[in-house]
Design goal:
two-stranded antiparallel ribbon, 257 residues, alpha/beta
Amino acid sequence: MKFLVCLKQVPDSTVRVKVAADGKSIATDGITWSISPYDEYAIELALEHKDGDPSTTVSVVTVGPARSRDALRQALAMGCDDATLVTAADTVGGLDVAKALAAVVKEAKPDVVLCGKQASDDDQGLVGPALAEALGWPHVGMLTKIAAVADGVELWREIEGGHEVWTAPTPVVGLVHKSAKEPRYPSLPGIMKAKKKEIPEKDLAALGVTPGAPRAEVVAMEPPPQRGGGKILKADGDVKALAAELARLLHEEAKVL
């Protein structure tokens, strides 16, 4: 089986981001970048299948600026077989990203395309469904497990209180929530091999994509408000008085009642 995983490079979740001077984006100076967490789970899901069936191949692709090559190297170091970089500006809209990925998918002809259910920077969850629509393929979201069956693939979809098990013919697009295992760390041999692998580049024009104006515009960004200090109410034996004081504070100061 042939997998193609679409990933995005985003600010690392441990980084404290700051709003840029334009008030509509983040300041990228000194930012540490990494693979979006749900995309890491998508990689792990494909690699788990490869662990059980060595004939499986796992390719990765991203659409983004030149620095996105580092995310692809990380995926290769985790155990993916090959990678493709589609060079584009950060400002390219999600629909154009989906069109570019669709062009790569049509060339690669995978059985299964996996995407994280959403990127951790914008949380839109747009590209995966838009890619499936552009390809005319079925797609299933919130995946945690995938298995090959006689007539296609079996897809485990997380729902409240358990899972639904779907079957779908291939080719198919899957949007990954989590996998049964945490994403693996790149091994030292994997890192050394990844450094030697070539990562071919394509641009949007070569894929027949002419970027248009984004359909959605960020009007403003601002950090969350600073939290004030907390209060500790000490019990002195009078439970009724303590409860009354707590109710007063929640009503008059916290204003949640």
